[in-house]
Design brief:
Layout (H helix, E strand, L loop, with lengths): L1 H23 L12 H9 L17
Length: about 60
Amino acid sequence: MKRLSALFTTLALSFVLATQPAAAAGFPDVPDTSRFHDEMNYLVEQNINSGYSNGNFQSPKM
């Protein structure tokens, strides 16, 4: 039973770590030269903002 629990924990941790770099990569509609690039990535890392489902940050149109 301990082996099964350890295997499940390892798989779950691997899944979480594998998905993190995708979120930290940033938004395709926000260039690295953007004034707020680092701040937007920080918000993603802190699970405050994840952008839209198409992968863009897409700020509101005014």
